[in-house]
Amino acid sequence: xxxxxxxxxxxxxxxxxxxxxxxxxxxxxxxxxxxxxxxxxxxxxxxxxxxxxxxxxxxxxxxxxxxxxxxxxxxxxxxxxxxxxxxxxxxxxxxxxxxxxxxxxxxxxxxxxxxxxxxxxxxxxxxxxxxxxxxxxxxxxxxxxxxxxxxxxxxxxxxxxxxxxxxxxxxxxxxxxxxxxxxxxxxxxxxxxxxxxxxxxxxxxxxxxxxxxxxxxxxxxxxxxxxxxxxxxxxxxxxxxxxxxxxxxxxxxxxxxxxxxxxxxxxxxxxxxxxxxxxxxxxxxxxxxxxxxxxxxxxxxxxxxxxxxxxxxxxxxxxxxxxxxxxxxxxxxxxxxxxxxxxxxxxxxxxxxxxxxxxxxxxxxxxxxxxxxxxxxxxxxxxxxxxxxxxxxxxxxxxxxxxxxxxxxxxxxxxxxxxxxxxxxxxxxxxxxxxxxxxxxxxxxxxxxxxxxxxxxxxxxxxxxxxxxxxxxxxxxxxxxxxxxxxxxxxxxxxxxxxxxxxxxxxxxxxxxxxxxxxxxxxxxxxxxxxxxxxxxxxxxxxxxxxxxxxxxxxxxxxxxxxxxxxxxxxxxxxxxxxxxxxxxxxxxxxxxxxxxxxxxxxxxxxxxxxxxxxxxxxxxxxxxxxxxxxxxxxx
Amino acid sequence: xxxxxxxxxxxxxxxxxxxxxxxxxxxxxxxxxxxxxxxxxxxxxxxxxxxxxxxxxxxxxxxxxxxxxxxxxxxxxxxxxxxxxxxxxxxxxxxxxxxxxxxxxxxxxxxxxxxxxxxxxxxxxxxxxxxxxxxxxxxxxxxxxxxxxxxxxxxxxxxxxxxxxxxxxxxxxxxxxxxxxxxxxxxxxxxxxxxxxxxxxxxxxxx
Amino acid sequence: xxxxxxxxxxxxxxxxxxxxxxxxxxxxxxxxxxxxxxxxxxxxxxxxxxxxxxxxxxxxxxxxxxxxxxxxxxxxxxxxxxxxxxxxxxxxxxxxxxxxxxxxxxxxxxxxxxxxxxxxxxxxxxxxxxxxxxxxxxxxxxxxxxxxxxxxxxxxxxxxxxxxxxxxxxxxxxxxxxxxxxxxxxxxxxxxxxxxxxxxxxxxxxxxxxxxxxxxxxxxxxxxxxxxxxxxxxxxxxxxxxxxxxxxxxxxxxxxxxxxxxxxxxxxxxxxxxxxxxxxxxxxxxxxxxxxxxxxxxxxxxxxxxxxxxxxxxxxxxxxxxxxxxxxxxxxxxxxxxxxxxxxxxxxxxxxxxxxxxxxxxxxxxxxxxxxxxx
Lengths: 636, 207, 375
Hints:
The complex is a heterotrimer of chains A (about 625), B (about 210) and C (about 375).
Chain A: E1 12-16, H1 17-27, E2 32-35, H2 42-55, E3 58-61, H3 65-77, E4 82-87, H4 88-104, E5 110-116, H5 131-136, E6 140-141, H6 146-163, E7 167-172, H7 173-176, E8 179-183, H8 207-226, E9 232-234, E10 241-245, H9 249-260, E11 266-270, E12 273-275, H10 279-286, E13 291-295, H11 301-312, H12 314-317, E14 321-323, H13 338-348, H14 358-371, H15 384-399, E15 404-407, E16 424-427, H16 432-440, E17 452-457, H17 458-475, E18 479-485, H18 514-521, E19 524-528, H19 533-545, E20 550-556, H20 560-566, E21 571-575, H21 590-595, E22 600-603, E23 608-611, H22 621-625, E24 631-635
Parallel strand pairs in A: 2-3, 2-4, 4-5, 5-7, 6-7, 10-11, 10-13, 13-14, 15-16, 15-17, 17-18, 18-20, 19-20
Antiparallel strand pairs in A: 1-8, 6-12, 9-11, 21-24, 22-23
Helix pairs in contact in A: 1-2, 1-6, 3-4, 9-13, 15-19, 16-17
Chain B: E1 8-15, H1 20-33, E2 37-43, E3 52-60, E4 76-79, H2 82-92, E5 98-102, H3 109-112, H4 121-131, E6 134-138, H5 140-147, H6 153-163, H7 171-181, H8 187-200, E7 202-203
Chain C: H1 7-13, E1 33-36, E2 39-42, H2 52-56, E3 62-63, H3 64-72, E4 86-92, H4 95-100, H5 106-116, E5 122-128, E6 134-139, H6 142-147, H7 159-164, E7 173-177, H8 179-189, E8 203-209, H9 217-227, E9 235-238, E10 245-250, E11 253-258, H10 259-262, E12 283-287, E13 295-299, H11 302-313, E14 317-321, H12 324-347, E15 356-357, H13 360-368
Parallel strand pairs in C: 3-15, 5-7, 7-8, 8-12
Antiparallel strand pairs in C: 1-2, 4-13, 4-14, 5-6, 9-10, 10-11, 12-13
């Protein structure tokens, strides 16, 4: 049960950045919240969905981020406060709507939270979404800590309502997924009633008028930002170096300055309102020092904008030495850490600092490389994707025409590595596998004779693959679509989706039938349980032989973690030690060396494989692959 | 309780699925309840699928520190898995760092598949002792398995931590937080796990 | 770096060099190699330093000196047709076998005899399946032998079934195969990589066929399908020179195709083969030019002689001497194949004789084309 509903103003809780954002929205009286799961944003709507009933708010896991934003925007247009949350890729998906909504304007406060993932710790790409604020001419706030995340979110609704535009909040992994002290505020007492004003049509054209109006709103926003408490300075009156930072950079800068004892030599300007720039405030700060260091991630967003502004007011503030990504002082890709800044400041300000002797570093590195074996990611024990990729590998090898699988984002993305036997060959955005397959599936006329396959998950199917399949059937693309239905949005934490039969608010609904949808399109549709390896191989091989049109194969088997919570193992599985061939010719440890399920352990001392009962989930698939029939299973 | 230094930095490390995040959350809330400023940074996302996980805890009376510990500044590493402690000491350890280690190995897929070897536990402990000022050990997983579920091991480790007198955490503080954060029907077992950890921990001396 | 003698070595030395003849000796033993629709498919990587696949393969190395010594007790290999006791003409006296068989029905008759007399418990033959796909088959009775009667012309990985079984470990086995398969069989007999003795060691008689080349399955079938769209092929036959016509029988009639049209589908690996008459078999069987209905029969070992004796005693076969002109001609053809093989190998990386291990005198005699029959 989530803490974010706690009715105790003044109480101090340890909250995740995302929970703090959710709490801020609650305190602001939000009534409609929508999102599609994506790390590092998932917990915002995740925690709101847990308290939705009690707080009488509507929370939804939408099928994709564009719809999520539209849902939240509808609330705004009906006079309520709405919130949409997403990761950076989600903002890309929602951007077409956002870039119309900015021109039409909003009514009730609408806050769009985008959580970026610098260094792509759990993403396919790295992206700095702040660019959308400039692109869309929208106000942008960046929280630098946990209390601030709550306060900013609450204020963002007010700001949005006052200006009549959506307000963007941009967070990053190190704020969203980190936890810190948050003091709770008051819970709202009133609920608004929804009503849509039908007297005024809402559209973004004529842009000569709406675009101008938007710019006027932004000017008004600038004035509000000038006096915002989210922008502050900490340091001496005349610092030798002025750090200009936003977001997580604030915490790193504080840490670095504190570590090196530079509190009276280095000043830190924290910008919380980062677009449009609070120009008066900035001018004042820039005057403090000739040397300015920009600390932000990932792109030089602040840096470029402030440098442009500085050029404009050069007469007033004088020439500056700007350090940052442009000067090569800080890396221009990846996330920042306190260590980047410590190293930089140490050199720049000639401070000695050695937290540990060089000999320790050497010894520790050696110890780790010798005695801490790498942990590459793989499928969980009992994962149906392992079985699917095994069958795909064999089917393609037997087919012999160098067929390939185009994929996208989900647990099954691990199909690009050893866990999935290197079967997946491309990875881009949600639904891109099916999209690319549409293109490859038309290249037969140019001599492509390799079988084309695409793979997507159940959640991804609803999110993005359906239009691609419509296109495939309509334009006659030749490929085999594999839909891996494990009844879960697994990678992000098992949020419900249209196929699971449950909503964010816990209601039971009729699941949307994947096969039915595909059949209605006119595609040839089959279903198989990937745990039945032989049958799966047979169907796959047959479908590969067909050359025309789009064929759909739904591979349906529950995610091992979902099944584990529900019912436990299907089989008791063990290895007959006498029959096991181990390293011998005829086996060469096929199960541990190639199949690589973590439930199977290679015992080097006995030269045999055995099942680790603590890890095995009892799916029984390994019993089908053992060449000596040494892996046995018994229904449990 | 005054901290020996401020901020006091703790890393809880293990393998995805061991309950690393929950342990850090419980510990963090215990300290917030005692009036400290606590920041916890986590690296997870794909960690469920067999990868290493790390939680960085910053405990302070003066400021909200960053969710990432700077290089070489860990004061204590709690390892739910032995080799993960070594992995963490490389970037974050220093000669004064202390370690609390659960002795039960978890083999990476790489070892299972024969691409690498899992070291002898003795070798790991000796390396740990050389790289730390003090090392405490216990087999938290064995205790948890005796209680019927390996998932209790992270609570066992919290109990062990409480015996070391490094942070103001005790059974009462744990109970108060557990009531808020954990399900009621396992309360007795969780309290028992905490207590068992406290009694089972012992210091490791090299031979 | 030591040569890997497992799948890695097999891939680099044989598959990667275009030397694989689809004999099937490497398949049917493990999850890594499978004979499938006319190809040997590698399903996964295997990193064993030594494997049966490599040891069995007649193209990793073929130590002619050692093999001939083991088989015939002599290291001096006669260059014409290999070791031979005698060479005859033969044909079956069983009308049913004659009708179903390719030419003289000699192979089918000998296998049926061996089975019915209990000399062997099972035989490994080649059958044509759906879409003309040939594969090995373990047979135990006359009807099954008849099912397999008739030549394939398409390379068949028949040895895979010898590997795979199922066997109970006691059976005595007969094998019928083309020269590369007979050579592989000899290597398989002496392979000691597993504890249990391989089924190959229980092969008590091997019957080798004459072979100049074999067709690759997939391209040949594509060609036939284009020539005969949606027709079921019932039987196929290539008439001997000088005619050399491929006759394809379907329900609607027989189509004649010049052999020149199917030359593009000859396995490239066959160009490297120096054995036309299965020189390591117990007995070898082929056609007789200009004499349809008769087979050439070469007897090489005691086992071969013994089988023929029984067949004659049972009046299953009749034999007569092979006219010397025919024998001469056969030797010329055999020598020509050897010389072509050596040429082909020299053209590839300037190797002396590639995978063949033979002494320099043998090489010399092949090049000069001297010496026909054994003294």
